[in-house]
Amino acid sequence: MNILLLGYGKMGKEIEKVAISRGHQIAHKIDLNNVEDLHTINPTEIDVAIEFSGPEAAVANLLFCLNNNIPVVSGSTGWLDRKSEIDSICLQKKGAFFYASNYSLGVNVFFHVNRVLAKVMSRYPTYNVAIEETHHTEKKDAPSGTALTLAKDVIDHIKTKTSWVNASAHELSQLSIVSKREPQVPGTHLVKYDSQVDSIEIKHIAHSREGFALGAVVAAEWLPRKVGVFGMEDMMEF
Ligand SMILES: NC(=O)c1ccc[n+]([C@@H]2O[C@H](COP(=O)([O-])OP(=O)(O)OC[C@H]3O[C@@H](n4cnc5c(N)ncnc54)[C@H](O)[C@@H]3O)[C@@H](O)[C@H]2O)c1
């Protein structure tokens, strides 16, 4: 495939490596230094665009793709207050738009397993559930966005849990999310169900950013020739 890269920062560079290793060509790379080149592109030569240009640039880049009939895979965060507008434009123009706030295939499998496990465990109230996440010391936010998605899905199923706290919970109605920050550790998420007789744990460990890039390229391979607005659940067919 001929890929248009919109955003050539940390993610754009990782996506380029993965795309080339899977036999694709990068037709154009657009970043802050050459934004004007976007208007010299022949859209008919592009099979799909992958957009990781960040919160300020995302909407304009997505509109460019939809107005030029280019299927687009987007991973930028921080612009989602305008997602319903972009979804409508895509549907109006019979275009193809794919969005995920987390492209890691493994994390999305983990989210699915977490939902299935929570549904099963909702029948066994003798187990108490808790979440733990460990990241490198440079990570500023806590809990991680991934831990928050896990927590939301647990709370949706386990009726004894009505809210989360970013600490060890003192009340049964609170779901503990314990955040640990340690030097040079891989990002790790653990969901643990504990009873007096045993424990059940599911764990995801991220080895690098490459997981996000791989998921975005796999989505770009999946999207062309489809019409509509899509996300990871559509592609991974849970
Ligand atoms: N969905 C996911 O799985 C996932 C994973 C990692 C990062 N992200 C998100 O992806 C975005 C990019 O992350 P990053 O780490 O690569 O950031 P980065 O700052 O390293 O790169 C951003 C790039 O966008 C370029 N850019 C800025 N304005 C532009 C414009 N108008 N047109 C085209 N390019 C423009 C910059 O020059 C830079 O090359 C962020 O919003 C980040 O949160 C999402």
From TrEMBL:
Superkingdom of this protein's organism: Bacteria
Pathway: Amino-acid biosynthesis; L-lysine biosynthesis via DAP pathway; (S)-tetrahydrodipicolinate from L-aspartate: step 4/4
Coiled-coil residue spans: none
InterPro entries linked to this entry: DapB_C, DapB_N, DHDPR_bac, NAD(P)-bd_dom_sf
Every Dihydrodipicolinate reductase N-terminal domain range: 1-103
Catalytic activity: (S)-2,3,4,5-tetrahydrodipicolinate + NADP(+) + H2O = (2S,4S)-4-hydroxy-2,3,4,5-tetrahydrodipicolinate + NADPH + H(+); (S)-2,3,4,5-tetrahydrodipicolinate + NAD(+) + H2O = (2S,4S)-4-hydroxy-2,3,4,5-tetrahydrodipicolinate + NADH + H(+)
Residue stretches making up the Dihydrodipicolinate reductase C-terminal domain: 106-236
Example GO molecular function: 4-hydroxy-tetrahydrodipicolinate reductase
Record EC number: 1.17.1.8
Keywords assigned: Amino-acid biosynthesis, Diaminopimelate biosynthesis, Lysine biosynthesis, NAD, NADP, Oxidoreductase
Family that this chain belongs to: Belongs to the DapB family.
The name this protein goes by in its record: 4-hydroxy-tetrahydrodipicolinate reductase
Organism (species): Rhodocytophaga aerolata
